Amino acid sequence: MFALIFFSVITFLLLIVYLLVYLNTKQFKLNINQLGHYKYCLVLGAGLEKDGKPSDILMDRVSTGVCLFNNNQVDLLIMSGTRRRGYDEPGAMQAAAIAQGVPDSAILLDPQGISTLDSCVNFKQKFAHESLVIITQPFHLPRSILLARKLGLDAYGTAAGIYHFSWYKRAFWYIREFFALPYNFIKLALYSH
Questions:
Q1: Residue 44 dihedral angles phi and psi, to the nearest 5°
Q2: How many Å apart are CA 126 and CA 160, to the nearest integer?
Q3: Which of the following CATH numbers is that of domain 34-190: 2.30.30.100, 3.40.50.620, 3.40.50.2000, 3.40.50.1820?
Q4: Which keywords fit this entry according to its UniProt record (predicted)?
């Protein structure tokens, strides 16, 4: 009984935290029609399939970035993800964007984008005074915008929405996001500017 009450309280608190993050970042979330022009578009990694190609969720992000590029809303796509032996997320993202017609000269790679926070820190280290638009799914966008803005970046976000996912995939991602928030707040607190 105690475990159930404890779990319920934790879940309720996480829900409140997520809602606060959502409300504090809502003004910085723009749909494609609201976006102005940005030099940089940060496309966040989301995993590869066993064959080394982008997962469906990652392809959704890359394709949304390509759409912004084709609409002349962004000049450069930054593909941020993990690169290690036998695993090259930014390289797979780059290949997918090139296959959709983006020139190689319009793509920058961030192979140290191990997490959302790392991707934002890496951007800050190279382009601290530049505005950017972040591409990720709706469940992940509030945290991404919050982390970037807490780092002092002039960050906006737009949700990837070209692909349609099953309700159980979306439910899994939202539940995962609830538990990722406290972890990311701890990482942000430990990050030394």
A1: -85, 140
A2: 25
A3: 3.40.50.620
A4: Membrane, Transmembrane, Transmembrane helix
pTM for the model stands at 0.86
Question: What pLDDT digit, counting tens, does each position of 27-80 carry?
Answer: 999 988 888 899 999 999 998 999 999 999 999 999 999 999 999 999 999 999
Pairing of strands 131-136, 87-88: unpaired
Residue 83: partners with Cβ closer than 8 Å, 6 or more residues away? 89, 90, 91, 111, 112
- The rounded distance, in Å, linking the Cα atoms of 10 and 134 is 29
Q: Burial of 14 by CB count in 10 Å (0-12 exposed, 13-18 middle, 19+ buried)?
A: middle
Do 138 and 103 contact (CB within 8 A), yes or no? Answer: no
Backbone torsions φ then ψ of 128, nearest 5 degrees: -50, -35
Domain ranges, ordered by start, for the chain: 34-190
DSSP state of 173: H
Alpha carbon separation from 73 to 41, 57, 65, 86, 173 (Å, rounded): 9, 22, 10, 33, 28
Burial class (CB in 10 A: 0-12, 13-18, 19+), 98: middle
Cβ–Cβ < 8 Å for 109, 91: yes
In angstroms, the CA 18 to CA 1 distance is 26
